[in-house]
Amino acid sequence: SYVLTQPPSVSVAPGKTARITCGGNNIGSKSVHWYQQKPGQAPVLVIYYDSDRPSGIPERFSGSNSGNTATLTISRVEAGDEADYYCQVWDSSSDPVFGGGTQLTVL
Amino acid sequence: QITLKESGPTLVKPTQTLTLTCTFSGFSLSTSGVGVGWIRQPPGKALEWLALIYWDDDKRYSPSLKSRLTITKDTSKNQVVLTMTNMDPVDTATYYCAHRRAGGPTPFDYWGQGTLVTVSS
Q: Is B43 on the interface with A (CB under 8 A)?
């Protein structure tokens, strides 16, 4: 089965740029979706199809995908961006696969 | 506006069967390509996909849990039901249902608030 690997944690100072990676075999050939989950809340879609933003998601959130790594980039990080972030793809069986999640800490 | 809401027991005993209902609005599960999935999250752990049902009654299950899961839909009631047999304390988790729109490798774009299920005697 397809495996997505995320770093358990990423820390960043306010105003700086956070980059959260999602590794998978030739993930660049797949469409990657990213979800933000704040404590006690349901996940919220923040990036879909590698780099598209749903309405209401700030332009500070962007995504890229190439080779074996997809990246969620959050520019000008704010305290309110502190959350867990999950990547997701569809595997060759057309089943969804989630990464293990990355906890973003704003210092 | 699409909304989903999970309902079901908050506490089940080991070996019992869990039945959860996802009641939704703002879309129809008879629309071509649309799906509803169940995803769970044990406390402090990652999201885990469980099952998915599509507009045409195509059903998909997590390979690791397939023998314990059944997903059904009632289009007239706008509901999707998940049953999980032989519950164990490790199944303690928040269970979410989510909408998947039609057209290619689409994301889960709308999620329910989740329901916490505790498995304990």
A: no
One pLDDT digit (tens) per residue for chain A, 107 residues: 899 999 999 999 999 999 999 999 999 999 999 999 999 999 999 999 999 999 999 999 999 999 999 999 999 999 999 999 999 999 999 999 999 999 999 99
Chain-centre distance for alpha carbon A96: 15
Tokens of A8: 């358990």
- Among B24, B96, B110, B111, most A C-beta atoms within 10 A, so best to mutate, is B111
Using alpha carbons, select from B17, B47, B54, B51 the residue that is nearest to residue B37. Answer: B51
